Input
Amino acid sequence: MQALITCVDYSDFLSVTLPTVAPHFERVTVLTTWEDSETQELVERAPFAETYCCRMGAFKKGDDAYDGTFNKGAALDIQLTYMKGWICVLDADIVLPEKMDLSGIEPGYLYSPHRRMLEKPGPIPPESEWGSLPAGPEHENGELAGYFHLFHTDDPRFGSPPWYESKKWRTAQGCDTVFSWPWHPNRVRRLPFEVLHLGETRVNWNGRVSQKWTG
Output
């Protein structure tokens, strides 16, 4: 099982989240840019992870003019072409729990857990306290946001590129929703654990603008 994380100017978050991701996956690929040296240096120090660097232009393709501001889906479309098997696409600001029950997963479904939200920078609370934090919006609206998408590439619903229809988007907004469309609602499953989302939601769709995360 492999994890794929997009991280551009998010090394402060990734320094917190990457150690929680590593124990769960055989391979962790961090998708960043040649310009983001801090992310590259962080991943180089992690023996369990590797970087795949795209030129910044790969993240900026949007509609027919290729003038997006931060098109996460465009870069994911490139990297997923080279990956097979169980893939977990993660955001760089997601902390995983110590134990993840994946015993029930099978090809043919798209999986995602619910989130708890830690919006203000600070120490990461123990898992026993996550339940007291605000719930992610998906608890109410049922959205299948791309902070955590787990799927198998042999699933016919995975199909062929472009999975994120990246030419339609100028920002990170919307592409993960498009990715989930091939899976009918009866082919979507919530995993039996929660993850922790660091920082505010919906503020970095055009690239990093939020404050630095300090723990």
Q: What stands out?
A: DSSP finds five helices and eight strands in the chain. The longest helix spans residues 11-21. The first strand starts at residue 2 and ends at 6. The CA atoms of residues 145 and 176 lie 6 Å apart.
